[in-house]
Each structure stands twice: as structure tokens, then as C-alpha cells.
Design brief:
Layout: H1 22-35, H2 46-51, H3 59-87, H4 91-104, H5 112-128, H6 132-145, H7 150-162, H8 166-179, H9 184-220, E1 230-234, E2 241-245
Antiparallel strand pairs: 1-2
Helix pairs in contact: 3-4, 3-5, 4-5, 5-6, 5-7, 6-7, 7-8, 8-9
Length: about 250
């Protein structure tokens, strides 16, 4: 059973602001009346903070943080909805929800986790739909955000295997083992795929030799010869090969 990833949200705590006393308010009013302006000690300490290299808190910064948190909450809602659709087997609809989460989530460090999870979950949907190339692309995007994302590595390896990209699949599984040496799935997959990878290499080698022979025969045929007229002879003393012509 394929398990899609979830994300945990942490509550933020805020400190209550200090309420000025009647005495301090009276003193401030008196200073404003006599001086005609607000000093750093009477106001928001903005000038003093600037002198110390610390920008004063602004309503704009607070509003931006609020917008970021709201966007993250909306992205998480879309992800959760995508998870429900996935469980119900509605993979196309789940893809749309994960894509919505990716569009809503701001491109900043605080959203890296949810974005990488949504890419990885989209990869699983594409596997279910038999679109393995798309699954590989989504896993790669997840790994660009989080290079230590083991599930994304394993899923990309599985998609490579479906396409008979055995070397690439083994490479992903080996990376997963480097991150987590106890990952039995990756270890078993490597053992299973290595003979298949070796067999594919030999097959590709034979196909390449056949193509070279075909090209050679097309050229030599103009002179009434073929590749079969040439034999490779090994020198027993040096181990090197030489070509001999035979009619």
C-alpha cells in the first residue's frame, strides 16, 4: 500500500504587550506638550533601534507574516484534501489539490516542507496513473527542495525501474541507503536490480556491435567485402589484437 506524506503544524505563541501606567501616560502627555515631538524613550524606540542596526517593528511586517501564515494554512488544507482524494482513488483530482497547495504556498524557507511533500505525493499519483516520467520529475523537484527526502528517492527509483532504467534506479536506492543504512527496501531493490542492469548492459553492447557491423558492411559492400572478411587475432604473448583479412 502506498502511503502519502502528511505535515504537522506547530502553534505559535505570542507575548502579551505591556500596558502603560497612568503615571507614564501623564508623563508622555507632558513631554509632548512641552517639546512638541515624541522622543525615542516616549515612542516606539525606532530611532534608537536604527542606531543599533535593528529595524523597528512595523505594521507592514506584521501584515506580511500574517499573510504568509494564512497562505501556509490554505496550502495545508489543499494538501489534506488531496490526501483524502488519493485514498478514495481519485488520483487526477488529488493532483489538482496538490498543485493548488504548491501555488498557494509562498516560495520561502517556511514552506519547503509542505512543497516537497506535495511534489512527492504528486509523484505517487502519477505512478498510480502509469505516468512514470512525470513521477520522476515530481520526485526530482521534491529532492531539489529536500535532498535528504528518502521517500522521494525510493519513489523515483521505483519509477525508474518501471521504465527499465535499472542503473538510475540502483543509483537512487544507493543514495537512500547512504542517508538511512537501515532501509531494507532500498537494499533488497539493489540486489534484485543489479542482475537486470548487467543483463541490459550486455544486450545494449550486442545491439551496438550489430549496428557497427551493419554500418561496416554497408561501406565494405561497395568493394565486394564484408565484416566477415576480417578476423581479430589475439597475440598470446602481448594479449593485444590484430586484424587479419580472409577471403
Amino acid at each position: 500500500m502506498v502511503v502519502i506524506d502528511h505535515e504537522e503544524n506547530e502553534d505559535r505563541k505570542t507575548n502579551p504587550s505591556k500596558v502603560p501606567t497612568a503615571e507614564s501616560s501623564s508623563a508622555t502627555a507632558e513631554n509632548e506638550t512641552s517639546d512638541g515631538f515624541e522622543t525615542a524613550s516616549d515612542g516606539d524606540d525606532g530611532e534608537e533601534q536604527l542606531k543599533q542596526g535593528v529595524p523597528p517593528a512595523t505594521d507592514s511586517a506584521a501584515n506580511n507574516e500574517e499573510l504568509v501564515q494564512k497562505a501556509l494554512a490554505q496550502a495545508n488544507e489543499a494538501k489534506v484534501e488531496g490526501n483524502k482524494l488519493f485514498v478514495d482513488g481519485q488520483f487526477e483530482e488529488a493532483l489538482l489539490q496538490y498543485e493548488l497547495a504548491l501555488q498557494v504556498a509562498p516560495d520561502m524557507p517556511s514552506s519547503v516542507e509542505i512543497r516537497s511533500i506535495c511534489h512527492a505525493n504528486r509523484a505517487v499519483c502519477f505512478v498510480k496513473l502509469g505516468k512514470y516520467d512525470n513521477s520522476i520529475k515530481e520526485c526530482t523537484k521534491a529532492l531539489e527542495l529536500n535532498p535528504l527526502y528518502i521517500k522521494a528517492l525510493v519513489r523515483r527509483g521505483e519509477a525508474h525501474e518501471k521504465l527499465e532504467h535499472f542503473e538510475e534506479a540502483i543509483s537512487d536506492m544507493k543514495k537512500a541507503l547512504e542517508i538511512d543504512p537501515s532501509n531494507d527496501q532500498a537494499r533488497k531493490t539493489i540486489r534484485r536490480l543489479e542482475p537486470l542492469a548487467a543483463e541490459k548492459r550486455e544486450k545494449m553492447k550486442e545491439e551496438m556491435i550489430d549496428k557497427l557491423k551493419e554500418m561496416g558492411n554497408s561501406v565494405l559492400g561497395r568493394f565486394g567485402m564484408s565484416i566477415d572478411n576480417f578476423k581479430a587475432v589475439k597475440d598470446p604473448n602481448t594479449g593485444s589484437y590484430s586484424m587479419s583479412f580472409q577471403r
